[in-house]
């Protein structure tokens, strides 16, 4: 049965823009980084890590963003709570690994200990404190925390919207079709990259660059903007773009030529490629029908909860302000840029991939080809020494050049195509959030 995904009619998905100029300064000036820290990063929901890493009481995740560090702990009742990762005694950072677990968090400076609920449980020389032992009287500073889509999320603003409210019903219900909570993270690479975080954001908020930068995907993904679907959820700041999968780019007159990757996809799904020679644009519809007919018996059980478009196309959800979830039929690619602790001209780039198991197979197809279906920790690499994935490397190669060009007195602000509207909307929202309009 094909499910249809329909947004609530009350929410416009193509709001007007004001036309605010997008000048270079925002990509390098300290005043922007300062405003973003105070008014943006400390007030939005962030992905903190994988819920699957928190099996037992006391298991924890840490995530550093900017100069801040957060620790998320599994509680005895099964819930997850998050705290600032700083000892109440004299401020030493408590947890130093991204994944760990212990009955208590122990500070490495003077040995104070905290229970998983953040309560101070043990200090050295308790009778030496004015008013008696501080144990049981102080708790680590708590922030908002929730679990959704197999991910642990945190928000430093405890007075803000719930995670569900922040996601918005349209986006949350749509993304739930992919059942991320049943996936395994098989790839997670991170690097300190020499460009402002918004350059990466802008890149993932448009597909105009695909023919120039990623020509290799035009044989299997239709990147013609007239075939794409764009939705902008102005109420929550998120957006979505859908590109048709298993269909060549309609940009080219030769689009109906059947190239090898599509022929292989047809064969994989038990279809003879011969009738599609000269009619490659028809591959997508034929494979949708085959996936519906034989998907379950071939091990693709998750298709039962997904619509026809979802089992073949690529849905890019960019969640405000900095995380893109590219939903593949069988996995999710997460691409994120976070602010550097002190340098506005650098950011922390994350590339994760989460995948469904197909049948009993221990191999999945990820962004870099076949990958072992094994949960991995986040790997931090020195930028340039190792790949961040072929497509991500291509994106970052221009991001660095753009960071240089945006300093030029000759750059007078962007000139955007209609299909880059999500960039314009993003910056206008950022102007409003940061309170900078000059
Ligand atoms: S700073 Fe943690 S025990 Fe002293
Ligand atoms: Fe790209």
From TrEMBL:
InterPro entries, sorted: Rieske_2Fe-2S, Rieske_2Fe-2S_sf, Ring_hydroxy_dOase_asu_C_dom, Rng_hydr_dOase-A
Keyword Oxidoreductase assigned: yes
Swiss-Prot/TrEMBL keywords: 2Fe-2S, Iron, Iron-sulfur, Metal-binding, Oxidoreductase
Domain Rieske: 47-154
Cofactor(s) the protein requires to work: Fe cation
Superkingdom of this protein's organism: Bacteria
Name of the protein: (2Fe-2S)-binding protein
């Amino acid at each position: 049965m094909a499910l249809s995904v329909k947004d609530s009619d009350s929410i416009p998905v193509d709001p007007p823009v004001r036309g605010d100029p997008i000048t270079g300064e925002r990509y390098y000036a300290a005043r922007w980084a300062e405003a973003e820290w105070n008014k943006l990063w400390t007030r939005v929901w962030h992905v903190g890590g994988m819920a699957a890493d928190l099996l037992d009481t006391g298991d924890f995740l840490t995530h550093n963003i900017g100069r801040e560090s957060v620790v998320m702990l599994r509680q005895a009742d099964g819930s997850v709570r998050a705290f600032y990762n700083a000892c109440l005694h004299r401020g030493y950072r408590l947890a130093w690994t991204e994944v760990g677990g212990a009955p208590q968090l122990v500070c490495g400076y003077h040995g104070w200990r905290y229970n998983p609920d953040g309560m101070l449980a043990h200090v050295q020389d308790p009778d030496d404190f004015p008013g008696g032992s501080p144990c049981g009287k102080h708790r680590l500073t708590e922030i908002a925390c929730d679990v959704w889509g197999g991910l642990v999320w945190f928000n430093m603003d405890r007075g803000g919207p719930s995670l569900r409210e922040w996601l918005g019903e349209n986006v949350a219900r749509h993304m739930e079709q992919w059942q991320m909570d049943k996936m395994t993270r098989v790839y997670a690479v991170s690097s300190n990259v020499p460009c402002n975080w918004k350059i990466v954001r802008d890149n993932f908020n448009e597909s105009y660059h695909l023919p120039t930068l990623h020509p290799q995907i035009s044989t299997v993904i239709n990147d013609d903007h007239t075939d794409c679907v764009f939705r902008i959820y102005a109420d929550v700041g998120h957006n979505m773009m859908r590109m048709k999968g298993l269909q060549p780019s309609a940009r080219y007159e030769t689009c109906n030529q059947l190239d090898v990757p599509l022929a292989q996809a047809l064969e994989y799904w038990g279809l003879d490629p011969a009738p599609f020679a000269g009619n490659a644009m028809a591959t997508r519809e034929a494979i949708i029908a085959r996936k519906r007919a034989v998907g379950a018996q071939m091990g693709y059980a998750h298709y039962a909860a997904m619509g026809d478009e979802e089992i073949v196309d690529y849905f890019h959800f960019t969640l405000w302000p900095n995380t893109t979830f590219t939903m593949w039929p069988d996995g999710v690619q997460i691409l994120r840029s976070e602010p550097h602790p002190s340098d506005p001209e650098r950011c922390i780039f994350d590339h994760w991939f989460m995948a469904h198991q197909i049948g009993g197979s221990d191999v999945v197809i990820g962004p870099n080809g076949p990958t072992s279906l094994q949960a991995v920790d986040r790997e931090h690499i020195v930028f340039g020494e190792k790949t961040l994935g072929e497509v991500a490397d291509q994106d970052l190669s221009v991001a660095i050049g753009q960071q240089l060009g945006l300093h030029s007195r000759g750059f007078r602000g962007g000139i955007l195509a209609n299909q880059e509207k999500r960039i314009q909307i993003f910056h206008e929202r950022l102007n409003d959030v940061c309170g900078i309009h000059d």
